[in-house]
Amino acid sequence: MKNELIKSIREKEIQLAKLKEHIDKSSVCSDLYNKVVLEKAILKKELENLDKNKFIDGLKNLLPRKKVLICDYFSSK
User: Fold this and answer.
1) CA 55, 58, 62, 64: dihedral to nearest 10 degrees?
2) Looking at residues 8-30, what average pLDDT do you find?
3) Can you tell me the distance from the alpha carbon of 49 to that of 42, in angstroms, rounded to the nearest whole number?
4) How many CB atoms lie within 10 A of CB 71?
């Protein structure tokens, strides 16, 4: 899965390099370039999520946090 994402990101970078030359020539190329940039960002985020430590994220969700109430902002201290 990780290798597939890295391969896809590299393919998007190649596409971006080719499209960058033609951005100014037509709006279709510009729109396509923007679409590929977005797709690359999504792939990079998916890769980041794979690299996250699932144990630490699960632990953070289990630890209680003090919830701030709106009245806490107006209390006199």
Assistant:
1) 100
2) 90
3) 11
4) 7
Q: Rounded CA gap, 39 and 75, in Å?
A: 47
Distance of CA 38 to the CA centre of its chain: 9
CA dist., res. 20 & res. 13, Å (int): 10
- The separation between CA 71 and the C-alpha centre of its own chain, rounded to angstroms, equals 35
As a whole number of angstroms, the distance between CA 77 and CA 66 comes to 18
Mean pLDDT for the stretch of residues 29-34:
91
Q: Amino acid identity of 24?
A: D
Name the more confident of 77 and 46: 46
Could you tell me the two tokens for 31? 């729109």
Whether the per-residue pLDDT at 37 is higher than 90: the answer is yes
CB atoms inside a 10 Å sphere around CB 41 = 12
